[in-house]
Automatic annotation (TrEMBL):
Domain HD-GYP: 143-339
Source species of the chain: Serpentinimonas raichei
InterPro entries for this protein: DUF3391 (IPR021812), HD/PDEase_dom (IPR003607), HD_GYP_dom (IPR037522)
Ranges that cross the membrane: none
Organism domain of life: Bacteria
GO molecular function: phosphoric diester hydrolase activity
Name of the protein this chain belongs to: HD-GYP domain protein
Pfam families: DUF3391 (PF11871), HD_5 (PF13487)
SUPFAM superfamilies, sorted: HD-domain/PDEase-like
């Protein structure tokens, strides 16, 4: 194999036949899941030229070189324009508020979902995934959750039925990070948990799309094929050179059950690693709160209530309780009834009490009409209102609940 000959060039100089070694910038600024490939068609070339990346690294031992050395003002004998001073970057350590993180989390969620979609497409075409890009995606999600977990986790719950498979990987990544932090895991373990969450369902790329998107109940034969996805994913990760034991373990064992009735190995109890048990809890929570081709998702608070009933055999009780502490007893997006008779939407966790989140009123059960939304911190000093119970949104015909809490997060 020829020795690599790397050269950094402006994006404008990229042409057909060049071998892209790397994009010089964030994975969020270009549409390619792969970072090492030959530009083979005009569409790919157009995407490179139009992306936000300004420079790429090419390997001229594996593809074409530039047609001519890039022209510079100095070489042409023209005066160079002095560089415009840039403001210093905002320190990464600065705590982000919920609203500030919302915009960043929305961009990360969109880009990460697109990256996972590309990853699955690569697998379906028989190509190995790009581990380096996958880790970059997981790192961006992890950093967002560590800054403020509520923003991205809440956004990732909103899925279209046909996009479920891709955003589910993003959501489980975020949930794994939040859960790992709640359990007191080290930063290295927390980041490993996030990467494992992103990769956990890779094997579904080997499941026919008509099965994944089937609006009705799967037949026994179809379900048997779907149940093979942990083993498919494990094999795909090994083929991509992923030797991370946590990612491999969670991918293979996130459908095991505490009572030994899971798959693919029918492991039980402590034979299932803690990370795999965490993966199972996060996978179930996101699955039942999401709209699927065959059913609508449950309300977040209702989902936690359902999951509490499954801790006697399916899920690890201690890890489930940690998830509840992480999300709140009334997670963001839940509909609750207040002691004054008004229905309110949970828009943020207060941090002071699991039972006293920040809510926005939306409806009066006394007058049976919509109300002017009012934001209330139930943990604030002097506040006398409290949550009486959770409510099922379907019982109240309020179709725009998700839009209401997203609008709250987006307010300046």
């Amino acid at each position: 194999m020829p020795k690599p000959k790397l050269k950094k060039i402006p994006v404008r100089d990229v042409r057909l036949g060049m071998y892209i070694e790397a994009f010089c910038g964030s994975w969020m600024d270009h549409p390619f899941w792969r970072s090492k490939f030959v530009i083979t068609d005009a569409h790919e070339l157009h995407l490179v030229h139009e992306c936000a990346i300004t420079e790429v690294l090419i390997d001229v031992s594996l593809g074409l070189d530039v047609l001519a050395p890039p022209a510079t003002a100095e070489a042409a004998g023209q005066p160079q324009t002095p560089a415009v001073p840039q403001p210093p970057p905002v320190p990464d350590t600065e705590a982000a508020t919920m609203r500030a993180e919302y915009q960043r989390a929305a961009a990360i969620c969109k880009a990460a979902t697109g990256a996972v979609r590309h990853m699955f497409a690569e697998v379906r075409m028989g190509r190995a995934i790009d581990q380096e890009v996958a880790r970059q995606v997981a790192e961006e999600i992890t950093d967002s959750v560590l800054r403020n977990g509520g923003a991205l986790i809440s956004l990732a719950r909103l899925k279209t039925a046909d996009g479920y498979t891709y955003m589910h990987s993003v959501a489980v990544c975020a949930l794994m990070v939040a859960l790992a932090r709640q359990l007191g895991l080290s930063e290295a373990e927390t980041r490993a948990a996030g990467f494992a969450g992103l990769m956990h369902d890779l094997g579904k790329a080997d499941v026919p799309l008509e099965m994944l998107n089937k609006p009705g109940r799967l037949t026994e034969d179809e379900f048997a094929q779907v149940r093979l996805h942990p083993e498919h994913g494990h094999r795909r990760l090994l083929a991509a050179g992923v030797d991370d034991p946590i990612a491999l373990d969670v991918c293979l064992h996130h459908h095991e059950r505490i009572d030994g009735k899971g798959y693919p190995k029918q492991l039980a109890g402590e034979a299932i690693s803690r990370m795999a048990r965490m993966g199972a809890v996060c996978d179930v929570y996101d699955a039942i709160t999401s709209n699927r081709p065959y059913k609508e998702g449950w309300d977040p608070a209702e989902s936690l209530a359902k999951m509490a009933q499954w801790t006697n055999g399916h899920l690890d009780p201690a890890i489930f309780q940690a998830l509840v502490r992480s999300l709140g007893i009334y997670p963001t997006g839940s509909l609750v009834r207040l002691s004054n008779g008004k229905l309110a939407l949970v828009v943020e966790q207060s941090g002071a009490s699991l039972l006293k989140p920040i809510v926005k009123t939306v409806y009066s059960t006394l007058s049976h009409e919509r109300v002017v939304p009012q934001r209330i911190d139930l943990s604030a000093p002097g506040n006398r209102l409290q949550i009486e119970k959770r409510e099922n949104p379907k019982d109240w015909q309020i179709p725009d609940l998700d839009a209401l809490w997203m609008d709250e997060l987006a307010q300046p």
